[in-house]
């Protein structure tokens, strides 16, 4: 669903109206605010007919005789509630008829100079509502000498992904799983099972195969113990409230025990929820506790929004908006990089290298010493448990918590890698 606001700088020219209509169709705009139309109220209906019956309109002629703001929407797709109108703005609430999307939409015209106090109030509003700045591309300001050719102001186009098609979620190890009583049991079972059929492979391949089996076990554990976390929390709250109501009328040992059980479950799952939000938000400077879930959740949503790729332009300037088009363009881009090679490379000046600083014989010998188990331990402990996981979804906390089970095979795999100077080819 696309929303747009555009300072068209006059709309009395029939050619300009046709181009605006074409722009709205090409960009699949559902709600649009046309600003500074400069159309007199008596000429309004004549211009409206050119946009067609799919559009419904509202204006601020009651506050401005020149109709400074025209607000249009496709009535088959959305409903628009007008909340307030002035000479410089129309404040609305937009709701998709599918029920999947709703938002406030307020086109505003330039007014008097904004004061520092108003700026502080606006910043406080943004922080209080946990809002984040939209990603954008194109002109930094809406005004430009190189507008759309129809106006010296560029349109502001906002894409709201109502039906986002995403692939299946890749596995990710959540830190709270390490506290589950069955965590080590699940790792042990998967690590033992993964040995079969891989005895002749190299050590790295064996570790990779075992991790795949452990991953399946952890997925099953997560599905059984932590799936639909928000729904579980709401159900526990409902049950707890019901028990507390019964306690007010008839305090019995069974009800007291039941209340204690529900309270402990609620604390447990609230802690799990906050831990998950913190891990997804990648906030490192704030610890779990003090009801930070709301802050972590806001940071997580902002990070997801910033990391998503909603629009991409190919080398010819074509705008790509569908997931399939974007995936294809990214794939072709990197295939082009990998399949090209420089015609020549600058050689190393051996004389400069020989005259420069060199390692001593003892330092050179230290570099080729065998990797010890204590060095592997130190390397693992030096990784922050809150850092992003690898491609397999396992972060360093998983290895630290499961180290007693997996360290023997990991030691051998790392040492084999350095002894033979190479990896296994990926399947």
Can you give a write-up of this model?
The protein is flat, with a radius of gyration of 31 Å. The mean pLDDT is 82. Strand 1 (2-7), helix 1 and strand 2 form a beta-alpha-beta unit. It has a domain at 2-159. The chain has 427 residues and is of the alpha+beta class. 45% of the residues lie in helices and 12% in strands.
Q: Looking at the structure, what is the overall shape?
A: flat
Q: What sequence of helices (H) and strands (E) makes up the elements?
A: EHEHEEEEEHEHHHHHEEHHHHHH
Q: Ends: how far apart? A: 41 Å
Largest sheet: 5 strands, mixed
Keywords: Coiled coil
Coiled coil: 219-246
Protein name: Endonuclease/exonuclease/phosphatase domain-containing protein
InterPro entries: Endo/exonu/phosph_ase_sf
Helix and strand arrangement:
Layout: E1 2-7, H1 14-26, E2 29-35, H2 44-48, E3 55-59, E4 69-74, E5 78-85, E6 90-96, E7 102-105, H3 116-128, E8 156-159, H4 183-193, H5 203-225, H6 229-249, H7 253-281, H8 293-307, E9 312-313, E10 319-320, H9 323-338, H10 350-355, H11 361-367, H12 373-381, H13 396-401, H14 403-420
Parallel strand pairs: 1-2
Antiparallel strand pairs: 1-8, 2-4, 3-4, 5-6, 6-7, 9-10
Helix pairs in contact: 4-5, 5-14, 6-7, 7-8
Give short descriptive properties of this protein.
427 residues; alpha+beta; 5-stranded mixed beta sheet; Endonuclease/exonuclease/phosphatase domain-containing protein; Endo/exonu/phosph_ase_sf; coiled coil
């Amino acid at each position: 669903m696309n929303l747009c606001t555009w300072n068209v700088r006059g709309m009395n020219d029939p050619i300009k109206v046709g181009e605006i209509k074409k722009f709205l169709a090409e960009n699949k705009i559902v709600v649009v605010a046309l600003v500074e139309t400069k159309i007199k109220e008596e000429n309004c209906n004549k211009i409206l007919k050119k946009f067609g019956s799919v559009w419904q309109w509202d204006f601020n002629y009651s506050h401005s005789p020149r109709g400074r703001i025209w607000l249009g929407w496709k009535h088959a797709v959305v409903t628009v509630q007008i909340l307030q109108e002035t000479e410089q703005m129309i404040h609305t609430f937009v709701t998709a008829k599918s029920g999947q999307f709703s938002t406030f939409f307020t086109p505003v015209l330039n007014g008097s100079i904004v004061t520092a106090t108003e700026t502080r109030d606006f910043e406080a509003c943004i922080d209080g509502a946990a809002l984040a700045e939209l990603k954008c591309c194109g002109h930094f300001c809406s005004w430009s000498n190189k507008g759309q050719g129809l106006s010296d102001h560029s349109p502001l186009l906002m894409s709201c992904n109502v039906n986002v098609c995403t692939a299946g979620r890749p596995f990710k190890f959540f830190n709270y799983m390490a506290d589950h009583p069955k965590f080590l049991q699940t790792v042990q079972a998967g690590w033992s099972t993964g040995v079969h059929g891989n005895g002749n492979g190299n050590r790295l391949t064996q570790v990779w195969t075992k991790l795949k089996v452990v991953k399946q076990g952890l997925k099953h554990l997560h599905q059984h113990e932590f799936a639909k976390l928000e729904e579980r929390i709401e159900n526990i709250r409902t049950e707890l409230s019901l028990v507390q109501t019964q306690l007010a009328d008839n305090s019995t040992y069974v009800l007291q025990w039941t209340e204690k059980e529900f309270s402990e479950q609620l604390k447990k799952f609230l802690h799990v929820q906050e831990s998950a939000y913190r891990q997804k938000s990648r906030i490192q400077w704030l610890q779990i506790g003090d009801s930070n879930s709301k802050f972590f959740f806001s940071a997580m949503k902002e990070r997801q929004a910033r990391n998503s790729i909603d629009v991409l332009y190919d080398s010819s300037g074509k705008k790509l908006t569908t997931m399939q088009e974007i995936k294809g363009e990214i794939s072709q881009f990197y295939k082009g990089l990998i399949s090209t090679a420089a015609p020549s490379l600058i050689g190393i000046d051996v004389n400069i290298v020989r005259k420069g600083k060199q390692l001593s014989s003892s330092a050179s010998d230290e570099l080729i010493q065998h990797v010890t188990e204590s060095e592997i331990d130190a390397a693992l402990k030096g990784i922050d448990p809150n850092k992003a996981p690898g491609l397999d979804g396992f972060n360093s906390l998983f290895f630290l918590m499961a180290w007693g089970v997996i360290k023997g095979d990991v030691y051998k795999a790392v040492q084999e890698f350095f002894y033979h100077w190479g990896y296994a080819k990926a399947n």
